[in-house]
């Protein structure tokens, strides 16, 4: 994969991980190696301002020492309001619906202030319903895990099973299907179940 350069560094892979310290250390690498057996090294990405994990097994194999040996951990429960988001690094910013309850708002993923992806969603607290209405990652930032982070961020805002989630109908696209298959599915995928408070654009 070609290296992508932002204002301050190279874009690497990122995955959601809740919490801090050893609690959020993943059990497997991006290729499925068990880190407790193969070993892992903790580090820091200055480009993203996030902690990193490197799989020792992947790193020891020169042919495998690509963007998948090391990845960053982003806590999907840490979301900033637009006015309080840090200027640097990879951060989640919540932009609530402007007008009405249960309207469509979004969570943006921003890298050094620049939006690189977003998930659109409607949440109705009284009905305990949540609807994912859109997901987009900038074309030159795909296959890094940004979409996975955005999906985790959406679920963190309205956690199932407390909230009943669904999504709008999926576009007829192999790329979209491949994304959701990689993420491991989503509750109510492609079968929208909005509450009566939601007015969702077609
Ligand atoms: Zn590995
Ligand atoms: Zn409702």
UniProtKB/TrEMBL annotation:
Residues 109-162 form the N-acetyltransferase domain. InterPro entries: Acyl_CoA_acyltransferase, GNAT_dom. SUPFAM superfamilies: Acyl-CoA N-acyltransferases (Nat). It comes from the Bacteria. Keywords: Acyltransferase, Transferase. The keyword Chloroplast does not apply. Its EC number is 2.3.1.-. One of its GO terms (molecular function) is acyltransferase activity. Pfam families: Acetyltransf_1. This is GNAT family N-acetyltransferase.
């Amino acid at each position: 994969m070609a290296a992508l350069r932002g204002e301050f560094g190279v874009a690497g892979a990122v995955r959601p991980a809740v919490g801090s310290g050893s609690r959020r250390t993943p059990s497997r690498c991006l290729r499925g190696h068990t880190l407790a057996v193969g070993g892992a090294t903790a580090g820091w990405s200055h480009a993203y301002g996030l902690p990193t994990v490197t799989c020792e097994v992947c790193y020891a194999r020169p042919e495998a020492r690509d963007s998948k040996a090391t990845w960053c951990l982003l806590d999907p429960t840490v979301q900033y309001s637009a006015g309080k988001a840090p200027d640097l690094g990879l951060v989640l910013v919540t932009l609530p619906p402007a007008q009405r309850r249960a309207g469509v708002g979004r969570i943006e993923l921003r890298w050094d202030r620049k939006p690189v992806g977003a998930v659109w969603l409607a949440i109705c607290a009284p009905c305990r319903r949540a609807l994912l209405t859109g997901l987009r990652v900038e074309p030159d930032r795909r296959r890094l895990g940004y979409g996975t982070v955005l999906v985790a961020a959406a679920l963190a805002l309205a956690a199932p099973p407390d909230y009943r989630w669904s999504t709008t109908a999926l576009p007829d696209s192999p790329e979209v299907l491949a994304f959701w298959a990689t993420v491991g599915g989503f509750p109510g995928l492609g079968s929208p179940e909005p509450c009566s408070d939601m007015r969702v654009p077609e």
